[in-house]
């Protein structure tokens, strides 16, 4: 028998599986979807691989190598996920191995190590240092921790003489956590008798016997017994030695915890609009029929309640459900809401978990022990079976698209999975992506709308402040008099305020007021960003950093200072103008620690602060009843992004953040500070008028041949020499021009917006097309050619429907 194996060789990626012999002892246990260790290439190299097929015959059987090891006794990928991987690799011009690895928890990625093996111990007599290194061991790890570099010449000589050899091994990092457990083995009367005979001084034994007397006949964690009954390990051991109890070890899951316990919640009675949406969704969930719904609901319209009740319905008919939320901020609040409804039947998957937690949550899902999964982008690969419903909340969010290989969009994966299971896909948003809204227009998706807030409340009122005028008035480019007055009023009434400083597309750099000099990264074509907390200028692309200068490097002027405003600066400013206000800051710096977001939000929810000041990470999902004012300090920075979606992003962000105000009984107010008060994205965000924005933006996209009228592909070329990057970009573009359809449009090649990153130069070409099978074939070919080009130092990146045009 032969196995088809996709191998993990980063420098030689290919979508072709390799054929291996299956040795007899492995034959009985080997199945598709298992991880194996196989030899690859010359030398003693071993790599990890995934078995994608098992066959009776192989085309060519001579010289085939054998599988050496099976990593675990159960397949880690089922048939559905193997098929999905193969489709996704093709669709996104990616290699199957990178897709397979993305689907699984990090710890399942192989880690490779080297070992030194001693072949002829007797020969080491004349090599005392090496003999000491081995110290009677036949094999030792070969890395800089263990082996001094001074010994390398000697080792090489010995390798030539075949006294030692260098071996490669595959380490399995997926570790199961085990805990000690114990259980009584005698009957109640036995323990009673022993208890009566105890010396009065043997208090601990008495406590343990009392416990054993009442304990259930099953294993319980030793640690719990020790803590709860004030015992110690010695006493347990003593009693075990007498044969009165048994100890063992069992697996224990590392389940991610929230900062405070979750209170159970009951379904709310739905209002008419919610009921209509819910009825349509569940009618589909109970059938084995694929359908995608777009739930367009204004902020606070109760979309989440519709999600939760739809999930309950999927569970009621014996199916499973998967819910995606955008990364980080939404996760704790949403996880709380889902857990409050479904308790332990929920697994959580996102990048904020530890490796162990991720691995264990994944196993709980894979073993069918939970039926609901909530998580960020990569949770779309959760190994649920029998899926009835997939929900993507805030479906317009760019975090659903992965920026690295494989460059997949979670929405596409979700669509594939619901097609496979005959399931329901539910996309929800107050501001759907134009692509999704257009599909609903064409009837590809079914549109459901929620036009009113769920809590009887009304949408907040919005006031636009023209900062060009305001600055003249009080010479303050951070807080307008209108915003200050409004904040004071809310503080007096003990209501809460959310302030957003939009950092996207926003330059927070240093500039010399005399000569205009700005410190830039030495490796990349970008200005360095100010980080006051560490006193350094940092490059966000490569991490290069230097001290914040006091003097201009060019003209020596001391008038070199920060341009633009960071969250820290706003906090300082607030202290001056509103000294009584308690401010919480939420940005990348204050949320780096695990659980920090949950802690911050819990504290704001408990009224431990009056103002929550944050970057765009506060825009979504927050649901605090006492927030009655939202201030947007700089509404327009996203407008200047070099991206055809700049208006869409601005509209989405402003609508989302405005939606944080007045979510309960008290009415909300929004103040929107801008230098572009007449821009349509800003005007329509003021009215929270998504439909008007959709129509206006669609007209522009039509005129400019952009998504959703055309599909988009971006190809990037990177090289250390600028002329080489350009050469490959032009050659490839010319080649493609001879292949593509007539109505396919190619823009470029041209240097990327950031033309140099980490000392590599970037060129890009953007392709807009409608139907172009030739283009798809050519791109697949290009991807495979990329492997050879890599050896000439060129990196080619093919990105289908890119969301990032940097
Ligand atoms: P969205 O997800 O659309 O922004 P949420 O689901 O967060 O809205 O709902 C906003 C608020 O309305 C929440 O506090 C929620 O508990 C409440 N809510 C939702 N549905 C109902 C309902 N049917 N009756 C009463 N309150 C509701
Ligand atoms: Zn200067
Ligand atoms: Zn850099």
From TrEMBL:
<dbReference type="Pfam" id="PF00271">
    <property type="entry name" value="Helicase_C"/>
</dbReference>
<dbReference type="GO" id="GO:0016787">
    <property type="term" value="F:hydrolase activity"/>
</dbReference>
<dbReference type="GO" id="GO:0005524">
    <property type="term" value="F:ATP binding"/>
</dbReference>
<dbReference type="Pfam" id="PF18074">
    <property type="entry name" value="PriA_C"/>
</dbReference>
<comment type="subunit">
    <text>Component of the replication restart primosome.</text>
</comment>
<dbReference type="InterPro" id="IPR040498">
    <property type="entry name" value="PriA_CRR"/>
</dbReference>
<dbReference type="InterPro" id="IPR042115">
    <property type="entry name" value="PriA_3primeBD_sf"/>
</dbReference>
<keyword id="KW-0235">DNA replication</keyword>
<dbReference type="InterPro" id="IPR005259">
    <property type="entry name" value="PriA"/>
</dbReference>
<dbReference type="Pfam" id="PF18319">
    <property type="entry name" value="Zn_ribbon_PriA"/>
</dbReference>
<dbReference type="InterPro" id="IPR041236">
    <property type="entry name" value="PriA_C"/>
</dbReference>
<feature type="binding site">
    <location>
        <position position="512"/>
    </location>
    <ligand>
        <name>Zn(2+) 1</name>
    </ligand>
</feature>
<feature type="binding site">
    <location>
        <position position="539"/>
    </location>
    <ligand>
        <name>Zn(2+) 2</name>
    </ligand>
</feature>
<feature type="binding site">
    <location>
        <position position="552"/>
    </location>
    <ligand>
        <name>Zn(2+) 1</name>
    </ligand>
</feature>
<feature type="binding site">
    <location>
        <position position="542"/>
    </location>
    <ligand>
        <name>Zn(2+) 2</name>
    </ligand>
</feature>
<dbReference type="GO" id="GO:0043138">
    <property type="term" value="F:3'-5' DNA helicase activity"/>
</dbReference>
<comment type="similarity">
    <text>Belongs to the helicase family. PriA subfamily.</text>
</comment>
<keyword id="KW-0347">Helicase</keyword>
<feature type="binding site">
    <location>
        <position position="555"/>
    </location>
    <ligand>
        <name>Zn(2+) 1</name>
    </ligand>
</feature>
<keyword id="KW-0479">Metal-binding</keyword>
<keyword id="KW-0862">Zinc</keyword>
<feature type="binding site">
    <location>
        <position position="515"/>
    </location>
    <ligand>
        <name>Zn(2+) 1</name>
    </ligand>
</feature>
<dbReference type="Pfam" id="PF00270">
    <property type="entry name" value="DEAD"/>
</dbReference>
<dbReference type="GO" id="GO:1990077">
    <property type="term" value="C:primosome complex"/>
</dbReference>
<dbReference type="InterPro" id="IPR014001">
    <property type="entry name" value="Helicase_ATP-bd"/>
</dbReference>
<dbReference type="GO" id="GO:0008270">
    <property type="term" value="F:zinc ion binding"/>
</dbReference>
<feature type="binding site">
    <location>
        <position position="524"/>
    </location>
    <ligand>
        <name>Zn(2+) 2</name>
    </ligand>
</feature>
<keyword id="KW-0238">DNA-binding</keyword>
<dbReference type="GO" id="GO:0006302">
    <property type="term" value="P:double-strand break repair"/>
</dbReference>
<keyword id="KW-0067">ATP-binding</keyword>
<protein>
    <recommendedName>
        <fullName>Replication restart protein PriA</fullName>
        <ecNumber>5.6.2.4</ecNumber>
    </recommendedName>
</protein>
<feature type="binding site">
    <location>
        <position position="521"/>
    </location>
    <ligand>
        <name>Zn(2+) 2</name>
    </ligand>
</feature>
<dbReference type="GO" id="GO:0003677">
    <property type="term" value="F:DNA binding"/>
</dbReference>
<dbReference type="InterPro" id="IPR027417">
    <property type="entry name" value="P-loop_NTPase"/>
</dbReference>
<feature type="domain" description="Helicase C-terminal">
    <location>
        <begin position="547"/>
        <end position="701"/>
    </location>
</feature>
<feature type="domain" description="Helicase ATP-binding">
    <location>
        <begin position="284"/>
        <end position="450"/>
    </location>
</feature>
<dbReference type="GO" id="GO:0006269">
    <property type="term" value="P:DNA replication, synthesis of primer"/>
</dbReference>
<keyword id="KW-0378">Hydrolase</keyword>
<dbReference type="GO" id="GO:0006310">
    <property type="term" value="P:DNA recombination"/>
</dbReference>
<dbReference type="InterPro" id="IPR041222">
    <property type="entry name" value="PriA_3primeBD"/>
</dbReference>
<dbReference type="InterPro" id="IPR001650">
    <property type="entry name" value="Helicase_C-like"/>
</dbReference>
<keyword id="KW-0547">Nucleotide-binding</keyword>
């Amino acid at each position: 028998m032969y196995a088809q194996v996709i191998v993990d060789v980063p420098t030689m990626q290919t979508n072709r599986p390799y054929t291996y012999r299956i040795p007899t002892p492995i034959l009985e246990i080997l199945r598709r979807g298992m991880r194996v260790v196989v030899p690859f290439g010359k030398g003693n190299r071993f790599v990890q691989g995934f078995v994608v097929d098992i066959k009776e015959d192989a085309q060519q059987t001579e010289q085939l190598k054998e599988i050496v090891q099976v990593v675990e006794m159960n397949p880690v990928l089922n048939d559905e996920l193997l098929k999905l991987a193969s489709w996704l690799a093709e669709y996104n011009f990616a290699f199957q191995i990178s897709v397979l690895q993305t689907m699984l928890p990090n710890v399942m990625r192989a880690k490779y190590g080297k070992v030194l093996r001693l072949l002829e111990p007797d020969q080491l007599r004349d090599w005392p240092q090496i003999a000491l290194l081995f110290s009677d061991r036949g094999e030792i790890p070969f890395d800089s921790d263990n082996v001094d570099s001074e010994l390398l010449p000697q080792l090489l000589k010995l390798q030539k003489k075949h006294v030692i050899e260098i071996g490669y091994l595959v380490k399995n990092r997926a570790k199961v956590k085990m805990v000690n457990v114990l259980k009584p083995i005698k009957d109640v009367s036995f323990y009673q008798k022993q208890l009566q005979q105890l010396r009065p001084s043997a208090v601990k034994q008495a406590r343990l016997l009392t416990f054993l007397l009442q304990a259930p006949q099953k294993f319980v964690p030793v640690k719990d017994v020790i803590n709860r009954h004030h015992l110690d390990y010695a006493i347990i051991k003593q009693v075990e030695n007498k044969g009165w109890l048994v100890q063992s070890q069992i697996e224990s899951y590392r389940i991610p915890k929230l900062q405070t316990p979750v209170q159970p919640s009951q379904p709310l009675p739905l209002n008419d609009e919610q009921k209509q949406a819910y009825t349509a969704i569940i009618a589909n969930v109970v059938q084995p029929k694929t359908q995608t719904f777009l739930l367009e609901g204004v902020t606070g319209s109760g979309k989440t309640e519709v999600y939760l009740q739809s999930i309950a319905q999927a569970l009621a008919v014996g199916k499973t459900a998967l819910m995606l939320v955008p990364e980080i901020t939404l996760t704790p609040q949403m996880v709380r809401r889902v857990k409050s409804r479904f308790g332990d039947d929920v697994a959580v998957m996102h990048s904020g978990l530890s490796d162990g937690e991720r691995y264990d949550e994944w196993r709980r899902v894979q073993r069918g022990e939970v039926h609901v999964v909530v998580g960020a982008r990569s949770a779309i690969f959760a190994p649920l079976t029998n899926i009835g419903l997939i929900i993507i909340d805030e479906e317009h969010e760019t975090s659903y698209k992965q920026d690295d290989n494989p460059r997949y969009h979670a929405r596409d994966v979700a669509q594939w999975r619901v097609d496979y299971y005959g399931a329901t896909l539910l996309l929800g948003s107050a501001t759907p992506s134009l692509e999704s809204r257009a599909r609903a227009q064409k009837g590809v998706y079914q549109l459901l709308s929620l036009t009113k807030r769920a809590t009887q409340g009304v949408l907040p009122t919005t006031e636009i402040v023209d900062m060009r005028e305001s600055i003249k008035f009080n010479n303050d480019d951070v807080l307008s008099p209108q915003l200050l007055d409004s904040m004071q009023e809310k503080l007096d009434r003990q209501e809460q305020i959310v302030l957003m400083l939009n950092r996207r597309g926003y330059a927070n750099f240093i500039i010399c007021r005399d000569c205009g000099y700005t410190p830039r990264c030495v490796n990349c074509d970008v200005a360095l960003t100010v980080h006051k907390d560490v006193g350094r200028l940092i490059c966000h692309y490569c991490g290069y950093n230097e001290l914040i200068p006091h003097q201009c490097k060019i003209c020596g002027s001391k008038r070199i200072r920060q341009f633009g405003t960071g969250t820290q600066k706003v906090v300082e400013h607030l202290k001056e103008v509103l000294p009584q206000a308690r401010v919480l800051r939420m940005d990348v710096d204050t949320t780096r620690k695990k659980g920090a977001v949950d802690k911050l939000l819990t504290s704001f929810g408990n009224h431990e602060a009056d103002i929550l000041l944050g970057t765009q990470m506060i825009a979504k999902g927050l649901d605090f009843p006492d927030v009655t004012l939202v201030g947007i300090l700089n509404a327009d920075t996203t407008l200047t992004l070099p991206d055809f979606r700049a208006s869409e992003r601005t509209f989405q962000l402003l609508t989302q953040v405005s939606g944080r105000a007045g979510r309960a009984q008290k009415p909300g107010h929004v103040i929107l500070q801008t230098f572009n008060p007449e821009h349509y994205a800003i005007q329509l965000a003021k009215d929270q008028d998504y439909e008007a924005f959709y129509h206006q933006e669609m007209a522009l996209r039509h005129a400019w041949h952009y998504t959703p009228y055309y599909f988009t592909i971006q190809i990037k070329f990177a090289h250390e020499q600028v002329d080489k990057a350009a050469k490959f970009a032009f050659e490839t573009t010319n080649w493609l021009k001879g292949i593509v359809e007539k109505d396919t449009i190619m823009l470029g090649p041209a240097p990327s917006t950031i033309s140099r990153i980490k000392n590599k130069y970037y060129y890009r070409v953007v392709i807009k097309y409608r139907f172009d099978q030739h283009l798809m074939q050519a791109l697949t070919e290009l991807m495979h050619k990329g492997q050879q080009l890599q050896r000439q130092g060129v990196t080619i990146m093919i990105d289908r429907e890119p969301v990032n045009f940097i």
